[in-house]
């Protein structure tokens, strides 16, 4: 008889909470559910904050959040799920960074918390109350953790770096127009 311990229950609760919130945010972007704006509206927002092309950026963010969230909640492919969700939250944090830390001021607190939780789950694994465990960890091997986190970190650095350059160039262009007037 298998006995689950506090660690397994704690990881299940963390996976369900983090994964559920991420999945809901992704569904807002992809489908317009829960008061979201769907691909069209989210794409317009993504363009306005420097992520181009907007629709592709909205789709990528929505899939990383919804897909990563559902997989985290299920405890399936945990390294890839946690890494993809953490990458999406790093992108969201970049948008909110100018507003400081606290969410009440529009800061990056919420995105950072979700991203860190997702990354922590990728590192610790899903626990025994998971599909990964039930399937013999075929999608949760030790080597997958650094591979998933490393690939996601590289891709996120490229995407966020390009976005930050666009935003900086746009601000410089706006300042030039102000000085000319």
TrEMBL record:
It is a multi-pass membrane protein. Keywords: Cell membrane, Membrane, Oxidoreductase, Transmembrane, Transmembrane helix. The keyword Cell membrane applies. Its main location: membrane. It is an enzyme of class 1 (oxidoreductase). The chain crosses the membrane at residues 143-162. The keyword Cell membrane applies. Its EC number is 1.-.-.-. GO terms for molecular function: oxidoreductase activity. It is found in: Cell membrane. Belongs to the DoxX family. This is Oxidoreductase MhqP. It comes from Streptomyces cyanogenus. The gene is mhqP1.
């Amino acid at each position: 008889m298998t006995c689950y311990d506090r660690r397994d229950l704690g990881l299940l609760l963390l996976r369900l909470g983090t994964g559920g919130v991420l999945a809901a945010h992704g569904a807002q972007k992809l489908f317009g559910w829960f008061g979201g704006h769907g691909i069209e509206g989210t794409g317009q927002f993504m363009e306005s904050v420097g992520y181009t092309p907007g629709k592709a950026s909205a789709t990528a963010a929505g899939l990383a959040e919804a897909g990563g969230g559902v997989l985290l909640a299920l405890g399936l492919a945990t390294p890839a799920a946690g890494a993809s969700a953490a990458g999406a939250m790093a992108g969201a944090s970049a948008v909110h960074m100018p507003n400081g830390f606290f969410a009440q001021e529009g800061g990056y607190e919420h995105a950072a918390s979700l991203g860190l939780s997702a990354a922590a789950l990728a590192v610790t694994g899903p626990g025994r109350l998971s599909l990964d465990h039930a399937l013999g960890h075929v999608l949760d091997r030790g080597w997958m953790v650094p591979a998933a986190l490393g690939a996601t970190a590289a891709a996120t650095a490229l995407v966020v770096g390009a976005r930050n350059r666009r935003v900086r160039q746009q601000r410089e262009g706006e300042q030039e127009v102000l000085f000319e007037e």
